[in-house]
Design brief:
Layout (H helix, E strand, L loop, with lengths): L1 H14 L2 H39 L1 H13 L7 H42 L11 H22 L6 H4 L2 H19 L5 H10 L1 H14 L2 H11 L4 H73 L1
Length: 304
């Protein structure tokens, strides 16, 4: 628990550095271009298709009627707003996966190197995972996460589950990808497996916590879908916050995993040092007792 909190505090302090903030803006540019392109070409078609699906589904009319009766949507078209929100909630995980890839391959190596240079300059680099192994690991983990997201989508219409399932899946994916990349350069495959096995509960907690933090920009994004006047401001803000949170995740996992690796390597060295001390002590004892044993042997031979 101490390592978990210490790593989180250090990651938060690193996020206040100008370099980290500047790096977090780079993926936002790509995300803005992609989101703007998708919205320009497919937004109306996606909302129309979602609205048609909701109209064909009998339960949607009950939900829309309830919202209108309670006056929660005011003068807005309840069906259009509901369709827009569902499109946003469906698109956010997919866009989030893309951001994760961007942060992983652009920011994570830079941030991990920053942590390594400042805190662990003497930590040996065993290069246990190249870029291709990181790519395969991330692709396999992402495929499993997308399958889980697709299988759980029908459950998102249940209000409590939409707040639980996506963050859990996102947290699992974050833990898998971030922990692997944090150890790719410095740890050997054996060390990486040992750390992932020994620290899996803490790493999973970190992934889930960052997964829940990653849902905060979704509400800003959804607000931009409802309040069209603030759309151009709220969506970039959500993308930047989302990217900064992923940068925080990278720093958190880098601090935790490199510290765990340093501790793992310190144990064998401590054991080896103890062994060397014992051997040297034994040699000193033998050297001091050797003359006495020789004199004792000569005395015994004289008596014979």
């Amino acid at each position: 628990m101490g390592l978990l909190l210490d790593s989180g505090l250090r990651a938060f302090c690193y996020c206040l550095r100008g370099r980290v903030i500047a790096l977090s803006l780079l993926p936002m540019v790509l995300m803005l271009v992609l989101a703007a392109g998708l919205a320009y070409f497919y937004w109306h078609e996606a909302v129309h298709a979602m609205r048609t699906l909701l109209d064909a589904w009998g339960v949607s009319s009950v939900v829309v009627g309830s919202l209108e009766t309670w006056g929660l949507l005011g003068r807005f078209d309840a069906s259009a707003v509901l369709a827009s929100l569902l499109v946003v909630f469906l698109a956010m995980p997919l866009l989030g996966v893309l951001v994760l890839f961007v942060v992983t391959f652009l920011l994570t190596p830079v941030l991990t190197e920053m942590v390594a240079q400042r805190r662990f300059p003497d930590l040996a680099r065993k290069n246990g995972g190249g870029w291709w192994s990181s790519l395969l690991w991330a692709a396999g983990s992402t495929a499993l996460a997308l399958l889980a997201l697709g299988a759980s989508m029908p459950l998102w219409l249940v209000p409590p589950l939409v707040l639980v399932l996506p963050p859990l899946i996102w947290g699992w994916l974050t833990y898998r990808v971030m922990a692997f990349d944090a150890l790719a350069v410095h740890a050997s495959p054996q060390e990486r497996r040992a750390i992932l096995r020994r620290h899996r509960p803490a790493l999973l907690v970190m992934g889930i916590l960052t997964g829940y933090l990653g849902t905060a920009p979704s509400f800003i994004w959804a607000s931009g879908a409802v309040f069209a006047a603030g759309f151009l401001f709220l969506v970039p803000l959500a993308v930047w916050i989302f990217t900064l949170l992923l940068a925080f995740s990278s720093l958190w996992f880098a601090h935790y995993c490199l510290a765990a690796l340093a501790r793992l390597r310190a144990r064998p060295r401590a054991g080896a040092a103890d062994t060397v001390v014992e051997v040297r002590a034994q040699e000193i004892i033998e050297r001091k007792t050797e003359p006495w044993l020789a004199d004792t042997g000569r005395r015994e031979k004289g008596k014979e």
